[in-house]
Structures are given as C-alpha cells and as structure tokens.
C-alpha cells in the first residue's frame, strides 16, 4: 500500500494496538499472507537493514494457519477500515498508463487517498500543485 501499512493512520494503529498479540503493522500483513495455504513466496519492499531483519523474524514466525480466528477477524476489520479511509481503490498497477493526456493517474489517486486517509487534504493539494508545475 505504498508505505501506508508501515505508517498506518491513527485509527488503524489504534486497532492494531488493541490486539492481544503485539505486532508491527507490516508484520500483520506478512503473517496474513503466509497464513494462506496457496502462498509459498512473499515479496516485501525493504529499504533498510532493520526492515530486512524484521521481515526475516516475521518469516521465522510464519506458517499456514498460524493466525487465530480473533487475529483474522482483526485483520478483516482493519482491511475494511482501510477501504473506508481510501476512497479510490487503486493499487498503482499502472494498467491505466500511459494516459493519452499525460496524466500520471496512479500518482493522482494516491495523493487523493493519502489526503483522505490521514485527514490532510491540504497536503494532497500542495503535492498536486507541485506536480502541476512540472
């Protein structure tokens, strides 16, 4: 989710904080993936040695069906909250590109979603204005 899993909005962080087992938000996402019997490889974007170490620790604790029903229900509630907070369900796949009018559609959707998700529309407008000048 473009970093929004690592730095969740406050309302989502409060949901994670209420869990019986404490995990980083990215670890919740990785555990959910590894919990699926059809998943054998998980790719995660990492940019620091600390993130590599965290992901290795997460992998060591992973496996099919290791999440409890309560944990799966929490993940489901968090997923619904993310959907509620991000009005445009864009995964930045790029299938809408190239735009015949030169619009970088995924970037615009991301700016809009981040402004809505973090209740900071002025930041999104500022970034959009910056992009318009280029």
In short:
With 134 residues, the protein is mainly α.
List keywords for this structure.
mainly alpha; 134 residues; 0% strand; 6 helices
Mean pLDDT, all residues: 89
Q: So how many helices? A: 6
The radius of gyration over CA amounts to: 17 Å
Order of helices and strands: HHHHHH
The secondary-structure class comes to: mainly alpha
* Broad shape: globular
Q: Give the N-terminus to C-terminus distance in angstroms.
A: 25 Å
Question: How would you sum up this structure, described in words?
Answer:
- The chain is mainly alpha-helical and 134 residues long.
- It has two domains: 1-85, no CATH class; 88-134, no CATH class.
- Helices cover 54% and strands 0% of the residues.
- It contains six helices and no strands.
- It has helices spanning 10-17, 25-35, 49-60, 69-85, 105-117, 121-132.
- The longest helix has 17 residues, at 69-85.
- The mean pLDDT is 89.
Could you give the topology of this structure?
Layout: H1 10-17, H2 25-35, H3 49-60, H4 69-85, H5 105-117, H6 121-132
């Amino acid at each position: 989710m473009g970093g929004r899993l690592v730095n969740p909005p406050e309302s989502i962080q409060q949901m994670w904080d209420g869990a019986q087992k404490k995990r980083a938000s990215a670890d919740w996402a990785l555990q959910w993936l590894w919990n699926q019997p059809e998943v054998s490889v998980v790719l995660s974007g990492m940019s620091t040695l600390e993130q590599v170490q965290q992901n290795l620790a997460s992998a060591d604790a992973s496996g099919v069906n290791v999440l409890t029903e309560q944990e799966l229900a929490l993940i489901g509630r968090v997923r619904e909250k993310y959907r509620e907070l991000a009005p445009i369900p864009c995964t930045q796949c790029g299938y809408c590109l190239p735009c015949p009018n030169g619009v970088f559609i995924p970037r615009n959707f991301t700016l809009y979603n981040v402004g809505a998700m973090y209740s900071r529309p002025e930041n999104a407008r500022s970034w959009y204005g910056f992009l318009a000048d280029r």
